[in-house]
Design brief:
By secondary structure, the protein is mostly beta strands. The protein contains no helices and ten strands. It has a ten-stranded antiparallel β-barrel with strand order 1-2-3-4-5-6-7-8-9-10. The protein starts with 10 loop residues before the first strand and ends in an 8-residue tail after the last strand.
Length: 155
């Protein structure tokens, strides 16, 4: 099965997302998610759908990732709700809604690199993160999306 030739066809994938923040006062902070999800391609864009379980609860957040050449679009619905748009050399603002309140998030993407191979898509995004108009951290997201059956991730 090939990622690039499957317009509108859904398949099961493994998703690994690693986020790293370089904050001035707190050092480096890393978060990693490994889960299964669904993939399809529509109108030249890659879509990855997966559920994220909130630690310590039975609640889940549904995630939709849309990938293009120079953009990453992330929608979260559930315990936390947001729509974040990462576009190279463009600052985007959105609200991040949590059970504890909402914050205004600014995302200024400096680099978006999407690489496709026969059974995987690899993504690297470097961006600056603002919370309520204040610079919080320089961040990096890496994603490894693979067809199920092509091997598991190294943990």
């Amino acid at each position: 099965m090939r990622f690039r030739n499957e317009e509108n066809m859904t398949k099961e994938v493994l998703v690994k997302i690693t986020g790293l923040q370089f904050a001035e006062d707190t050092g480096n902070d890393s978060v990693e998610i490994i889960t299964s999800g669904d993939y399809y391609k529509k109108n030249g864009k890659h879509y990855i759908l997966y559920d994220e379980v909130q630690e310590g609860t039975a609640d889940t957040t549904k995630n939709i990732i849309k990938l293009g050449t120079d953009m990453l679009d992330v929608t979260k619905r559930g315990v936390s709700n947001t729509h974040m748009l990462f576009e190279k050399d463009k600052k985007n603002m959105s609200y991040y809604y949590t059970p504890f309140g909402s914050v205004l998030v600014g995302i200024d993407a400096k680099k978006i690199d999407v690489r496709e191979s026969e059974d995987s898509i690899n993504v690297l995004v470097d961006y600056e993160l603002e919370i309520n108009y204040e610079h919080m951290a320089d961040c990096k997201i890496t994603m490894d999306i693979r067809s199920k059956g092509t091997g598991n991730f190294q943990i």
